[in-house]
Amino acid sequence: MNLLLIDDHPLFGVGFAHALTQAAPDIAVRTAATVDEGLAQAAAWPALDIVLVDYRLGETSGLDGLRRFGERFPCVARVLISGDEDAALVARARAAGASGFLGKSASIAALLAALQRVARGDTVLGEPGAQPGGCPTARQMEVLALIAQGQPNKGIARALGIAERTVKLHVTALLDAVGARNRTHLLVRAREQGLL
Questions:
Q1: What are the Response regulatory domain coordinates in residue numbering (predicted)?
Q2: Which of 28, 68, 98, 108 is the most buried (most CB within 10 A)?
């Protein structure tokens, strides 16, 4: 797997590249500090599989970087990586053409697993470790049960002792997992798939 990380913090970029290549020696990682530098590297690297773009790139938005890569290299999978892990940003990443969203707080193992799924053509949007397009996790099943009871996100957060933004990430992952458009459709699809 060939990865290009665009991040304007050299220490993070070098550390990320080193950690990934130590975890999976068959991965090649290159880094760039700007979107323009990344586009130039991609043009010279026809075997590039995935570009990871940091959300905060100085004066440039990573979302803009995703769009620019999509225009120039539509066959390269695009992933937004960020320390801000809220559902609204995940949705904006998807709208900008991302195949994945990775939080910087995730473990290297979780990041690697998500990148491997993106490389296989899967979409990985949601919290690290979530299983969009696959089986919901145990926590997601708890969230689903509370949605079925009519609980709003705030009520679910209170009942499970988690942050409301975490609930939003679980809901996003559930929508992806069952192929639903919204919460109402989620319940319909979950019942069809025997999850409720």
A1: 2-119
A2: 98
Are 25 and 83 found together in one domain? yes
Instruction: Report how many domains make up the chain.
Output: 2
Residue with tokens 């099943």: 141
Specify whether the CB–CB gap between 100 and 66 falls below 8 A. no
CA dist., res. 189 & res. 182, Å (int): 10
Domain assignment of residue 188, given as a range: 138-192
- Claim: this prediction has a pTM higher than 0.70: no
User: If we measure between CA atoms, which residue out of 107, 105, 8, 109 comes closest to residue 52?
Assistant: 8
103 domain-assigned = yes
What is residue 79's DSSP assignment?
Answer: E
111 shares its domain with 155? no
Distances (CA, A) of 133 to 38, 103, 109, 137, 156: 30, 19, 19, 12, 23
Nearest 5°: the CA angle 188, 193, 196 is 65
- Helices 164-178 and 87-95 pack at an angle, to 10 degrees, of 40
Number of C-beta neighbours around residue 153 at 10 A: 19
The CA distance from 5 to 8, in Å, is 10
